[in-house]
Specification:
There is one protein chain. By secondary structure, this protein is α+β, with helices and mostly antiparallel strands. It contains 5 helices and 8 strands; from the N terminus they run βαββαββαββααβ. The chain has an 8-stranded antiparallel barrel. A hairpin with a 4-residue loop joins β2 and β3. The longest helix is centred in the N-terminal third of the chain and has 15 residues. It is globular, with a radius of gyration of 17 Å.
């Protein structure tokens, strides 16, 4: 399984119209394959939409996209609003849960880490030992390394019921020694995050 994470930067003030047009077009697109999630940024770099598409492999991605582009209703007619486009192919860690529809948010946090070359296997090991206790506090949505895109990056997404719950969970995890996993500081080069909210048509709410 692979996940394509597509991030579009939008013109200021266009988010509502973009999500409306995207949702309408998606009704035609989902016959080929379905979205795992669709969010917009609430805190962090504003005026972004982020959509995640699951595929079995790159061959399926190429096939599905070719079929979808034959449909006159796809892609959504939002070109006039797009200011930037970025795509990454993510390989989920073996212990990452499958992306399934559900009401898990409505607050989602995407964390993007650039790491020292060669350290992804060590990060996976440290995460695997600590994650069972951490997910008792709030669910992990996705964690994996970027295979195609910016090298030496891994991305993880967490769900919270509110920003207050996020603060409480993170404080409890640190105080209890549950999280973060050991060895992170010496492996990480950069860390960024985005607070996301789902669109009305996202399968994850």
């Amino acid at each position: 399984m692979i996940y394509e994470i597509r991030t579009y930067g939008l013109a200021v003030g266009s988010l509502a119209e973009v999500e409306k047009r995207f949702g309408e077009a998606y009704e035609h697109r989902k016959q080929y394959s379905e979205l795992a999630g669709f969010w917009h940024t609430e805190i962090g770099p504003l005026n972004e939409i982020i959509h995640v598409w699951p595929y079995q492999d790159l061959a399926e991605r190429f096939r599905v996209r070719a079929e979808a582009f034959k449909n006159p209703n796809w892609p959504p007619k939002i070109r006039e609003f797009i200011r930037s486009m970025h795509s990454e192919i993510l390989i989920p860690f073996p212990f990452s849960p499958p992306l399934r529809p559900g009401k898990l948010g409505p607050i989602y946090e995407m964390r993007i880490y650039t790491v020292r070359p060669g350290t992804i296997p060590d990060i996976m090991k440290s995460w695997e030992t600590r994650l069972p206790e951490r997910v008792k506090l709030s669910p992990l949505i996705l964690a994996g390394n970027v295979e195609l895109g910016e090298a030496n990056r891994f991305i993880h997404i967490w769900a919270y019921s509110s920003l207050d719950q996020r603060e409480a969970v993170r404080a409890k995890a640190v105080q209890g020694g549950t999280w973060p996993p050991p060895g992170g500081a010496e492996r990480l080069l950069t860390m960024t995050n985005k607070i996301l909210k789902p669109s009305a048509f996202s399968s994850m709410q």
